[in-house]
Design goal:
Radius of gyration: 19 Å
Number of helices: 10
Number of strands: 2
Structural class: mainly alpha
Strand order of the largest sheet: 1-2
Shape: globular
Helix content: 55-70%
CATH superfamily of the largest domain: GntR ligand-binding domain-like
Length: about 240
Amino acid sequence: MNAPADSPVTPRRRPRNLAQGLVDSITERIRGGEIRPGDKLPTESEIMREFGVSRTVVREALSRLQASGLVETHHGVGTYALEPSGGNDFRVDPADIATVRDVLVLLELRICLESEAASLAAARRNQAQLHEMRRALDAFRSALDTSGDTVTPDFQFHLLVAQATGNRYFADLMSHLGSAIIPRTRINSAKFAHEDRAAYLERVNLEHEDIYGAILRQDAEAARAAMRTHLSNSRERLRRAQ
């Protein structure tokens, strides 16, 4: 029976986090067999049109899917589905990270997790991973010079460090947290640091370069210390502001 013409139409609900909503949709297609292992995923442009999201959202979702082992990306070729594992995906709702206290709690976790990840990355990284880290840092620098999007390359750099550990669980956790790990996506970090945005981001960029330099030199202790300093600086600024 058809609904009356004047019946209200319930709009499709958009998830609170667009990237996670996209991850969930593609994951369902892979686990349900609609996308089979070895199948090539639609292009970024096709996914943007289908889901009505930006390229940044698509790239973040694909990064999460790759870190969780559901897809693999071949640069210049495309992204392909892998055989899904039987385990349950880790879930953290970024929408729950909304206050200064929430960001502080997350930073405490990140200091423990990412300091060790940086140390392992220094010992285990390969040339391809170093190249991708350099590209992310160059993209951050370019965005800083043009007042563009610094969140995407910031998150990408941290994710790449996690991936360079060779331990998929570091990357899984970082990937599922997504860009919510970047404090300025939740609060005005520059305001809490009592400096203008450009100066704040310039300092973040220098801290990233210190981490990268240690990983490049394969200095595990320096990489651990540089990552701890980077994240501890953010935590201390927020503590003082709070």
